[in-house]
Amino acid sequence: MPLQKLQFRPGLNREGTDYSNEGGWYDGDKIRFRSGFPEKIGGWTQLASAQFQGVARSLWVWSTADAGAGNVYIGVGTSAKYYIYFGGSYNDITPIFQTDVLTSVAGTIATVNASATVTITDSGYSPNIGDYVTITSTTAVNGVQFTGGNYKVQSTPTTTSFTVTFGSLASGTGSGTGGTVTLAYEYPAGSNTFSIGTGWGAGPYSRGTWGSSYSSGIGQQLRLWSADNFGSDLVIAPRGGPIFYWQNSLGVSTRAQYLSTLANSTTALTLSAAAGDITFSGSSSSITVSSAIAPYIYPYMVLTGSGIPSGTKVGSSYITGATTVPLTASTTGASSGTYTLSYAGSFVPVGTYQVITSAVQEFVISFGANPYSPNNANTTFNPMLVRWSDQANPYQWIPDVTNQAGEYTLSNGSYIMGARATRQEILVWTDSAIYSMQYLGAPYIWGFQILMDNISVISPNSMITVNNVTYWMGRDRFYMYSGRVEVLPCALRQYIFDDINQSQAYQVFAGANEAFNEVWWFYVSSSSGGNTVDKYVVYNYLDRVWYYGTMNRSAWFQSGSLQYPIAADYNGRLLNHEFGCDDQATSSPQPIDAYVQSSDFDIGDGHNFGFVWRILPDVNFNGSTVNTPAVTMTVKPRENSGTPYGSADNPQVQSTQNYTTAPEYTVQQFTGQVYTRLRGRQMAFRIESTGLGVAWQLGSPRIDIRPDGRR
User: Fold this and answer.
1) Mean pLDDT (the chain, rounded)
2) Under 8 Å CB-to-CB from 663, ≥6 apart: which residues?
3) Residue 208 near residue 520 (C-beta atoms within 8 A)
4) What would the DSSP string read from start to end of 302-361?
């Protein structure tokens, strides 16, 4: 009998049985299809040896033209902190939520002899376990003196005390004042996993338990950060929390500012100025503020104080140090005294589900927000409200005939799940509909149109736009939008949705790998029995095929500013993907086990058993980094579909070409043929690799098979 070529349809198909998918691929891991043929995916390596705290939930990449040279920044929002990755370091810019200064307060710092556990008592704030606080003290207590280090709250013995781990052991037991103790509390950390039964929509929004009131936008469940650019600046917001603003010129070490609180305070900052801290140039034009008084004050502030006319405004420049800025009204003023800076534009949303910017129109937009009221900056949160700032002014949120700030309440659904900016519009998902949001200009500013109702979306981060087409995962199917909403046919639908851990569905996130025309969705599988993301499913939108695999990632982002897609793992690292052949997440590379297995095939309709005695491989090893890369090809026989696979021959196919010295491969040299001895009514073919430095792509191998009787 002539040789039989093994050619299978591209993509994995699990919608039917193994045998009913004859001629196709049925199972695999860490493979993709290129031009219809399977190959191993690329490896990954860490960006830097440094690590971040918490589980990353959002990544954002942008570049600037600082000092005439483009700098690329990576924003990393985690369950605990917000970082800017730059120059090989994770710069912590987590917003400071509250700062308490305790001067000569008895019992502020308590120690235990020969222990690193230190108890801090502060009646002004109650952090949670896992929160971070920066502590400074002016005097030592039993050998313990804090010098501005950042500490994680380990326990909360009482409602007014918490413990941290100091860097050395205390020399005695007792308590003291610590002199002047400064406690800078960061925005509260969130949970690494999702909890059912709390807040809007039964839990995803961290808004407290049912029946409780919303408080300060602080949530404790599965922190999902959003980040976007306004010009060269960064706007960030935790899901359910307030809006923060990071101004690029301040440098990567500067903390993001609590814009919502600052903007909504009638006395945002009171300056008890010493002589020389505030000086006036002449009688009218400018003011100089020292860095000790105002290291970073936002523009459009109103200045009042000794000898200053009421309503005098600080001009539109940032005060970042001993900086001179213009005034909008003349004044003579004094060089010392008490001065108050209050915000000219106010009523920034105190809570939001997501914040994005409209790059062309220069709006900052909040999805899910508290509505504007002229007499109350802390109105009741509306999960269906869309609010936006004035054009080109992210600080002004008061609707007025002189600006373009405004708001609009969506009607279809119970809460806004998320939004994505596309080339021509902003897409907004509620729990039951998708809207198109388009800029109209004055007087309506933004218009909203329902694109489709009775749809679903599984999580706030499950949407992705690639090549102006938007894809997302629903509760039980996939969707795409390219001008109209369509259900995306999926050959893995039953397999994937039966395997998703629905109690952790809000951890689902999407990513793009445009070099290979792929959209990835990562999810927590029920088969793993855990609560961390461990699997992925991929849609190749060029070939319109699907495949899946196992991988532990918590966030993914691709940008034209970066050479490779980046992802975050559960060990506090960012990883370059499609780099090399191996898992280089640590300094010790590990092999990536990759395989793909076909559905069963037979001779004719399986009337006769088949006897396979020879395989002629067709595989290349382009991109391998070891001298002689190898794969294992396996033919797995069985008597019929209801029986397990029997004895299989799995010969090794090895290259004889040196791949570590040849940058280009013109001739593929590998095992010419391998001999087998197996018998079955139907068979499956499998190729896999388990070694370091191996890259491969399968072609069309052939088997020498002949009929071998009917029993």
Assistant:
1) 83
2) none
3) no
4) EEEETTEEEEEEB-SS-B-SSEEEEBSS-----SSEEEEEEESS----S-BSEEEEETTT
Whether residue 563 is contained in a domain is answered as no
pLDDT above 60 for 278: no
Neighbours of 550 (CB within 10 A): 12
Lowest-pLDDT range, 38-42, 230-234, 699-703?
Answer: 230-234
Pairing label, strands 566-568, 555-557: antiparallel
Whether the predicted pLDDT of 208 surpasses 80: no
Comparing C-alpha atoms, which of 652, 606, 593, 635 is closest to residue 28? 593
The domain in which residue 130 lies consists of 96-186
Regarding whether 368 and 236 lie in a shared domain, the answer is yes
Q: Report pLDDT for 170.
A: 97
Same domain as 356, residue 295 = no
What is the side-by-side order of every strand in the sheet holding 31-34? Answer: 31-34, 37-40, 697-698, 619-620
Is the same domain home to 317 and 302? Answer: yes
Residue pair 688/634 in contact by the 8 Å Cβ criterion = yes
Give the pLDDT band of residue 318 (cuts 50, 70, 90): very low
Both structure tokens of 603:
């001779």
Q: Judge whether 438 and 446 are in contact, CB under 8 Å.
A: yes
- CA-CA distance, 558 to 49, in Å (whole number)? 21
Cis, peptide link before residue 95, omega less than 30° from 0: no
State whether residue 711 is helix, strand or coil.
coil
Do residues 539 and 513 touch, judged by C-beta distance below 8 A?
no
For the residues 99-114, what does the mean pLDDT come to? 95
CATH number at residue 180: 2.40.30.20
Is the same domain home to 75 and 163?
no
Q: Which of 566, 565, 499, 568 is nearest to 535 (CA)?
A: 499
Residue 469, domain member (yes or no): no
Radius of gyration in angstroms for the set of CA atoms belonging to the chain, rounded to a whole number: 30
Domains of the chain: total: 5
The domain that contains 647 carries what CATH number? 2.60.120.260
* pLDDT of the residue at 13: 97
Q: Cβ–Cβ contacts within 10 Å for residue 603, how many?
A: 19
Residue-level pLDDT at 145: 97
Domain identity same for 234 and 376: yes
Is position 216 within any domain?
no
In the block, tokens 């280090």 appear at 149
Q: In whole angstroms, what separates CA 445 from the centre of its chain?
A: 30
The answer, yes or no, to whether residue 295 has pLDDT greater than 50, is no
- Among residues 68, 58, 92, which one has the least CA distance to residue 251? 92
Contacts of 463 (CB under 8 A, 6+ apart): 418, 420, 427, 429, 457, 470, 471, 472, 510
Q: Is the pLDDT of residue 196 over 70?
A: no
What pLDDT score was predicted for residue 339?
53
pLDDT higher than threshold 80 for residue 245: no
Q: Are 435 and 449 in contact (CB under 8 A)?
A: yes
Instruction: Say how far apart CA 600 and CA 602 lie, in whole Å.
Output: 7
In the chain, the N- to C-terminal Cα span, in Å, equals 19
Higher pLDDT, 389 or 70: 389
Chain center to CA of 563: 18
Domain identity same for 337 and 362: no
Q: What is the mean pLDDT of residues 453-470?
A: 96
